Amino acid sequence: MAYRVVLVPMTGDPADPDALKVTRAVVDQTRAHVVGVHVRDPIGVASRGGMFEAAYLTPGLIESLRESGRASATAARDTFNKWQAANGIETVSAPPSSDRLTAEWIEADAPVSQEIARRARIADLTVLARSGRQYAADSDQALHGALVESGRPVLLVPGAGASAPLDTIVIAWNDSRESALAVAAAWPLIARARRLVVFVGGDDEALRASADGFVAHLAWRGHAAASIVTDPHADVGAGLLLAAEREKAGLIVMGAYSHSRLQRFVFGGATDYVLRHATLPVLMTH
Length: 286
What we know:
Largest sheet: 11 strands, mixed
CATH architecture of the largest domain: 3-Layer(aba) Sandwich
Order of helices and strands: EHEHHEEHEHEEHEHEHEHHE
Number of strands: 11
CATH class of the largest domain: Alpha Beta
Radius of gyration: 20 Å
CATH superfamily of the largest domain: HUPs
Mean pLDDT: 86
Strand order of the largest sheet: 3-4-2-1-5-6-11-10-7-8-9
Helix content: 40-55%
Number of helices: 10
Shape: globular
Strand content: 15-25%
Oligomer: single chain
Distance between the termini: 20 Å
């Protein structure tokens, strides 16, 4: 299994170039297609609940917003084109007759969350730049579409820290449906790793036993030897990032939002913490 079609939304995030670098590292070098996409909310959609109420959208303001949108699209396209040219990647819009790395660029005027979710569903993986943020998926339309609405895996790239090799992978295991889906989505990367670390948060003995079973599963599949790291503290997200730093990991694999909204409100959420504070790429599924 390999990632054959990879979607890279270009949102104007400072980490967009880093997301493209990581994309080059994770795709199969002999056969893969990278789809760069820039999505702009239509003016009427962008105004609702945003900075501008519809009554204040004068013709001059509308044109200013359109010009800003065009400038953002041009900057995103230039970033993608420079990356493509630097890597000698051919532009195609249909599968080529021979195996090689290809790319294409798409622009769309549509509700951002819906459009990215729609395109992510027909990709094997979405690679999304996300530098330091003070909010999470509920208020980030690109992230919400890719992570929550698409049903597909997302590789989040936080910025310059993403340059570390993906030789060591930390897998956050909590015996949930979401963590199992994340592992399944990460098999192409897990298979290439030289070292695997299974992180277990909390002091639940049943969860530790489940992690032992998961490590045995990795061994049956013939992957690199895996060790288990536990953290008894309540803040699972912080413990996970500290473990990844100690292990000098290049990637975290984890399920996203495996607890209810009420549990996250009361106890805090590991997913939100990692989204806000991660300094290395994180592959998530929901």
